[in-house]
Amino acid sequence: MKSLLVYLKEYKKESLLGPLFKLLEASFELAVPLVVAAVVDQGIKNDDQRFIITHCLLLVALGVIGLICSVSAQFFAAKAAVGFATGIRKALFSHIQGYSFADSDKMGTATLITRMTGDVNQVQSGVNLVLRIFLRSPFIVFGAMVMAFTVDVRAALIFTVLIPVLAVTVFAILLIGIPLFRKIQAGLDRAMRITRENLTGVRVIRAFRREAEEKTLFQESIDALMNMQVATGRITGLLNPLSMVIVNIAIIILLNTGAGRVADGVLTQGAVIALVNYMSQILVELVKLANLIITMTKSFASGSRIEAVFAINSDRQTEDELPLQPENEEDGEQQGSNVPEYHIQFSDVTFRYADAGEEVLYDINFTASKGDTIGIIGGTGSGKSSLIHLLPRFYEAEKGTIAINGQDIRTLPVKALRNRIGIVMQEAVLFKGTIRNNLLWGKENATDDELWEALRIAQADEFVGNKEGVLDAKVEQEGRNFSGGQRQRLNIARALVRRPEILILDDSASALDYLTEAKLRTAVREACRDTTVLIVSQRASSVMHADKILVLDDGRIVGTGSHQELLNSCQIYQEIYSTQFESSMAQS
Question: Following CA atoms 391, 394, 400, 406 in sequence, which dihedral angle do they give, to the nearest 10 degrees?
Answer without folding.
Answer: 40
